[in-house]
Amino acid sequence: MAKRRSESRATQLESSSVKSVRGRPAAPESAPGSEPTAAGEQRKPEPGLYLVATPIGNARDITLRALDVLAGVDRIACEDTRVTGKLLSIHGIGTPLMPYHDHNADAVRPRIIKALKSGESVALVSDAGTPLVSDPGHKLVAAAVAEGLPVTALPGASAVLTALQLAALPTDRFLFAGFPPNKAAARRRMLSELATAPATLVFLESPRRLADSLADMAAVLGDRPAAVGRELTKRFEEVRRDALPALAAHYAQAGPPKGEVTVCVGPPGDEGRAPADDATVDALLAEALATARVRDAAADVAARTGRPRKDVYARALALKDGKA
To answer: What is the pTM of this model?
Structure first.
């Protein structure tokens, strides 16, 4: 549904030796769309929109209820029909698919709402993980709610929660920040805004930008414990735990890892970081002003040094005007 995909980008489904859902015993608890009427006969879900979580890697990581709903709805709205088609094929499901993603959402959304208003049941899935996490599916949900149409969520796999469980970091408070910006200056501004959040931070990141992102995290957030999870739930799952500077150094030397990446960063410690002195700020500003506007240079240096942005901006203006 989004250019960045949901939770992690397009996924490779594994463990595909799963038989069809049809004909298996009824689920022990009843919920919309989950009660077979007789052996081998699937009850059609009630009309409405169903938000169905799908595996982030291992094809067996899908709930029995999700399989019931996907098999019984009138149609499935998905990011990529090839990805969802492979999952459905593994489980012997032949429900019609319709693409719903960033590029066609404005045109397709009214069609889905019309189908729901006519009494159809529609499932919304992403390529991987839980719909609406880092994708624009919320616009469809908002439209359905505005029309008074029923919306049901079916929980399941999530790269965010899986990484958080494996990170060995505090879980009582966490903040999911999605994908950091591509450009370094914007990325550092974002990290600066999050620096004082009293929570474990969770990011999704592209493998090719991982080393640069970790370096910026180390510069802005300091020597915090962190964990990089890749290929979560897949055959070559790996979780590397270390301080941010050490992780940045590792991936700078090793190069981009293979597979999808989720980064968890521990909350700020009591020790904090001493703000940089004036001489360091001036040197960094002089370098940044050579290629950036005053505002962008000041934001970048403020994020890197821990100094208040307002003060750094005033210093940058003075340097630019030759009054420093």
So the answer is: 0.73
